[in-house]
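Minutes, project check-in

Agenda point 3 was the complex the collaborators sent over. CS summarized: three entities, 826 residues total, and the question is how they sit relative to each other. Sequences were read into the notes so everyone works from the same version.
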Amino acid sequence: MEDPIQPGSTALMEATALGQLFASLHDAGYAVIGPTVRDGAIILDELAAASDLPFGWGVRLEPGGYRLRRRADSAAFGHSAGPQSWKQFLHPPREKLWSARLADGAFEIGADEDATPPRLAFFGVRPCDLRAIEIQDQVLGSGRGNSRYAARRDAVLIVAVNCTEPGETCFCSSMGTGPGAGPGYDLALTELVTGDRHDFLVDVGTPAGASVLGAVPHAPAAASTVEAARTAVADAAQHMGRSMPATGLRELMAGSYDAARWDDVASRCLTCGNCTLACPTCFCTSVEDVTDLSGDHAERWQHWASCFDLDFSYLHGGPVRVSPESRYRQWLTHKLGTWHDQFGSSGCVGCGRCIVWCPVGIDITEEVAALQAEAQQTESGRTP
Amino acid sequence: MTAPVLPARYRVAGRQEETHDTVTLDLWPVDQPIPAYQPGQFTMLYAPGIGEVPVSISGTGPDAGLVQTVRAVGAVTRALCAAGPGRLLGVRGPYGTGWDVASAADGDLLIVAGGIGLAPLRGALLSALGHRDRYRRIVVLIGARSPTELVFARELDQWRCSGAEAEVTVDQPSAGWTGHVGVVTQLLPRAGVDPARTTALVCGPEVMMRLTARQLLPLGVPARRIRVSLERNMRCGVAECGHCQLGPLLLCRDGPVVSYEVAAPLLAIREL
Amino acid sequence: MTAPGASQDAPSPGAGAAELGGHAFLRGMPERYVAVLARACRPTQVPEGYRFFAEGDPANLLWLIRSGHVALDLHPPGRRLIVETLGKGDLLGLSWLVPPYEWQFGATAVQDTILFELDAALVRAACDADPGLGYELLRRVMSAASSRLQAARIRMLDLYAASSSVRDEA
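CS then shared the predicted structure for the full assembly.
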């Protein structure tokens, strides 16, 4: 073994060692979740081996459009904005909260079954998604509430992957969430494919990451290699196809409740809620109490909900947000505006999934630009 | 803590029918009782096998008991209203912000209640009456649809004896009603409170709360001393499900009691 | 030009202008106008059950309630419906101001009640003679009428009723 690996250090790993990295993770007790090609998309699932990674696959992204494409190289992480995010593992779409026995006007809640969450290694977490996990940690991770989020989160090891090639719909850079991973990873990889070399620069984030890397063949990274990797990531920031205003989104949202633009977007929005499904930070849930036919056994289940659902805001005989304008407005002003008031940060990480997976191609960067223009027009119309 | 929040079991110890569709339940803890509550807070009340709804706490009973008033408007609330003595219900909480009655000390406390809105205010009133000398005047104005739809009618005399001035008005009188007829806001000019030293606690239908606040402002009560109790769809009660949002507020955490200074601009936005 | 009140069967001028001007309804009214009204005004008090007027009677008087409780009512056959109650600070009577000068409702004292009673004809004449007084009075009458209209509309909405719906909580 070479120099002992510390958090904060870097190492160079050849792509051929990915299999051993997987083995090291398995030996440490983790099931590896990562991207793989299935059903015409790059989805997230448990990977048995490194060969399941989508080597050589890329994507072509546009508003309302997603297509796989063959890359000229064999990069494993040359893609983005798949339909899923890591939230389905930390914050499951359906989860039983508890069950109870009912009898004689009384009830008794059962002992906690399946209390220990599985140890998962998230392999290939993009910086935007890493930030999204942090954001959901803020909302759901305090452990005071309904979900078992905190326990699941503690059982996760994160192998992030820095981006060197933004997708067409990405805007992480203007949201301050990428293309380089912020803190929170155990290991971060930067993929370097040049000519016939295929390597990964590895940044070690934590002792757990160091321990996993320890069992994998690696070498010290040359300064020039590190330089090349950092440059590739920095360059990516200059090539984003889209952007959001750097500051003032919270104020823009707060001042836009009466904007005419909402009617415009509502004429296109189907209120299908795809954006809330694809968005890595959307967290809303509903609970459902169910009994079996005998009435002796009750369960409470939690499941994903969307603010686009009509009954999401049900109160006293009907929804509060009836019109599509009000529901779209709720989603966007929450994501970009009131999330700050509620949770201390923006809810958007610039991953672009909502743009890609919207069936009618609504682009929130375009909507924000229009709201900003309308706000400026209203402002200049006011001052004589 | 990694387990989800589980309902604590409470037994129905008493059941009082307030009106044709409203019941007040006296609940005694069977398991570990929930933490002590502040007037204005609510619990998530569980009707076993059916579901949960947010219900304001109307007061406390002996031995960490809870008093909660429920109106039957759907499956869960009908089951809660039908729960007879001995039945077990589930309670999670207490959640939310309280009326902060103590902040009204050295001044006048004005309580304006519309319909079942009196239930969340009862705890505040009882708390103030329990420390009567901290307040100058305590005035309670109660509006109801009709004389048969008054909640806690049986307690009015007791409240008066304990040092509150209580006036009741109805929208529709029944035969023999000799009290006020009119909307509760019409009692405001005669309330006789000193506006500059008044703290107003208002609860009822949202329209009624807006009107009441809008009439208190020109009388000279500052917006930050008018508090309203807001309501939105609630599921988890712990700021994790996203349902109870009202603009920047999560009403299970930043409400339900909100100062009118904060609430006014939010209530003015349609479909917020 | 005769001063208002001088030639009619005026009520004895028993209300001091200062006393009258202290009534909530006239708050802020210039003293010279209050003085005119005072000449058409006398303090009065009535026992519980006193019938001020019935629906259809000529509206010759108006009152400012100083204390007590008055109920406005309507009488469909066999019934008495109270539409609203008034109390301290309120103006009793709106129909004296405009033709046909006929009461639309009845009014009964629910408690012993103390009031200022004013002669409607004298007040109207004083307003005709001095539009400034007329405007001041009209503004206040309009304010009372407007707030009662708003209250009536709110009561019509029946906000306290439970909303009708099959399902409550989703």
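Noted in discussion: The radius of gyration of chain B is 18 Å.
Follow-up: revisit at the next meeting once the mutant set is ready.
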